[in-house]
Design a protein that fits this description.
By secondary structure, the chain is of the alpha+beta class. The chain has helices at residues 5-16, 36-43, 90-98, 126-134, 167-170, 195-205, 216-225, 260-269, and strands at residues 18-22, 26-32, 56-62, 68-76, 80-87, 108-111, 116-123, 146-151, 154-160, 176-177, 184-191, 211-213, 274-281, 291-294, 297-308, 311-319, 328-333, 336-346. The protein contains eight helices and 18 strands. The chain has a six-stranded mixed sheet with strand order 8-9-11-7-1-12, with helices on both faces.
């Protein structure tokens, strides 16, 4: 597959300047009520009790057997929480949470996905773009922290998030990947009716910074290279958070939550059967299921793949015994065998590398 000049410009801007992309398909749920933090504390994997207004974190909703329902990014406000879901999962998450609200809980859930929009800025000059477009210095915001401003009379939330740093090609020293912060990344959340104007404002204010709009194809390639798992690919009820490298979203010192026993047992015994890894491939496999092999033996499968200007990158699950950077593999699909190599292990598992 040969990509267009525009695609390559989008990739280059995300790595060297700044891009703007519409991520409004991510769900936005407002959680209110006195018991909101206690509720998420017992529903998800991270320690929500430590959050104060202006802070945020990632956490995972899991089933009773520790399988992934969805990964959430939660931003704490003075009276409410804003939970971002995966693309298209707002209603599923709302229903899941609603089923677990007890009679005495003071918790309400409001789906704001249709009434708001979400634009994402990626690249080393993302902070400069926020300053140029909105007059706010967001460069000092720690990851998952947020602040609010106004633009054209509308309230805009500026929230720091994970960068799209292409670790599969650019970081070979540590052997670890995923959720890198070598570059900037911000979400801008605003009322839906002002989002088109805000988009235009970002492109106009960022012209001198080299800003480019980024489409879905370029975003997908960069999130694969950055080791960021996506719902429906690397995240589903087939997997446990630790297998997906979501160690930063799990607390091992908090109280009980749904699925805790399975996840705690996996961590204490060091018994991960598989791990999510980043891959470099010699060529793009044909469409369909792609099996990962080592010495002719099946050890996992490819979950995502894309071509960057520098080469083909992928994500996949492999048996933990093979999850070491530099391990040679082969990707097998439709009778073709393509050389591959593990470039990094997603997350910060103590079993990795």
């Amino acid at each position: 597959m040969k990509h267009s000049v525009l695609y390559e410009e989008e990739i280059r801007a995300a790595c060297q300047a700044v891009t703007v992309t519409d991520r409004s398909l991510m769900g936005r749920l407002r959680i209110a009520g006195r018991d909101r933090l206690d509720f998420l504390q017992r529903m998800s994997t991270n320690d929500m009790s430590r959050l104060t207004p202006g802070q945020g974190c990632v956490t995972v909703l899991t089933t009773a057997i520790g399988r992934i329902v969805d990964r959430l990014t939660v931003y704490a406000e003075a009276e409410t929480l804003l939970a971002l879901t995966s693309e298209g999962q707002a209603e599923l998450v709302r229903r899941w949470l609603s089923r677990h609200i007890f009679f005495m809980d003071q918790v309400t859930l409001t789906d704001e996905t249709e009434t708001t929009g979400l634009l994402a800025l990626y690249g080393p000059r993302a902070g400069e773009l926020v300053q140029a477009a909105l007059g706010v210095d967001a460069t000092a915001l720690p990851r998952y922290a947020w602040q609010r401003t106004f633009w054209n009379g509308a309230e805009v939330t500026i929230a720091a998030t994970e960068a799209l740093t292409p670790l599969a090609l650019l970081s070979q020293s540590s052997g670890r990947g995923g959720m890198g912060d070598e570059s900037g990344a911000f979400y801008l959340i605003a009322p839906a009716e002002v989002v088109p104007g805000l988009w235009a404002r970002l492109l106009d204010a960022g012209a001198s910074l080299g800003v480019r709009p980024m489409g879905e194809e370029a975003y997908e390639a960069l999130r694969i290279a950055a080791g960021q798992p996506r719902f429906g690919r690397e995240l589903s009820e087939e997997y446990i958070p630790l297998e997906a490298g979501l160690w930063d979203a799990v607390s091992f010192s908090k109280g009980c939550y749904i699925g805790q026993e399975i996840i705690a047992r996996m961590e204490s015994r060091g018994k991960q059967a598989r791990q999510l890894v980043g891959l470099r491939l010699a060529a793009l496999p044909p469409a369909g299921e792609v099996i990962l092999q080592a010495s002719g033996q099946r050890i996992g499968r490819l979950t995502s793949v894309a071509r960057l200007p520098e080469g083909v990158v992928g994500l996949g699950y492999v048996r933990t015994a093979y999850a070491t950077p530099g391990t040679p593999l082969s990707a097998v699909a439709a009778g073709q065998e393509i050389a591959a190599e593990i470039s990094f292990v997603v997350g910060s598992s103590p079993l990795a590398g």
